[in-house]
């Protein structure tokens, strides 16, 4: 029982320590481990990816093998190294690993970089800023479309970049947080439905969907508790289920419902216009609403930290 108490306590303090480090230091730029992982992933893709004309099943098999080499080799190696560390380093190591897998401050900084020029009608810089965090075409977005894109990214990444890695850290420790972050990164690199990646990136996209399923639903509840609860739950259930992503849809719908704004609509991806169903209820967002989205995520982080302290 003493061992269990010590483990639970160290886990809770590791989460708090990682959040404090992230808020204080932000995300390292030139030397972040994910930059190195991205280079490693590109090498794995070059080594394993077949031409788009290859049989679909064979492309998927190569995608699975590339995913396993890219992710599991690193995760298993670091897990073995963690086991070899003395016990007094466990808390510090867990804190540092979780710090590198969350992006709370980075998300806030990206949102501010969009909101500031948008407030002064500097659409060129606002488009440039939002283009750094979304995959849609941003060159011709107007004020409302920029605000929508920014809010959608903030709400979705509240789950992907903050709550999901914390969840997997609580469940599986540093191994879980690291596995989630690398899998999520590969989905961002390989999970597009382009001719080159449709089948090769199938494994990366499906694994990310599985790992995000529970954290996304917990994020829905988080947004609902901290905003308009009734509308958030209604939008997540009735609107989110029809979204192209089984996890992003409910999360963004819940956030939009909680803040009582309408998101989504037509957007251009890789030169192709997609008409997406409406998420949320209320007026279309303006620059000021980006701050509301950031505050909603911030309050969610504080709520999770409090619950982790009280329950663990």
Automatic annotation (TrEMBL):
A GO CC term attached to the entry: plasma membrane
Biological process annotations from GO: cobalamin biosynthetic process
Residue ranges of the TM segments: 64-85, 161-183
Membrane topology note: Multi-pass membrane protein
Coiled coil: none
InterPro entries referenced in this protein's UniProt entry, alphabetically: Cobalamin_biosynth_CobD/CbiB
Keywords, in A-Z order: Cell membrane, Cobalamin biosynthesis, Membrane, Transmembrane, Transmembrane helix
Pathway where this protein functions: Cofactor biosynthesis; adenosylcobalamin biosynthesis
Protein name: Cobalamin biosynthesis protein CobD
Naturally occurring in which organism (per UniProt): Marinomonas fungiae
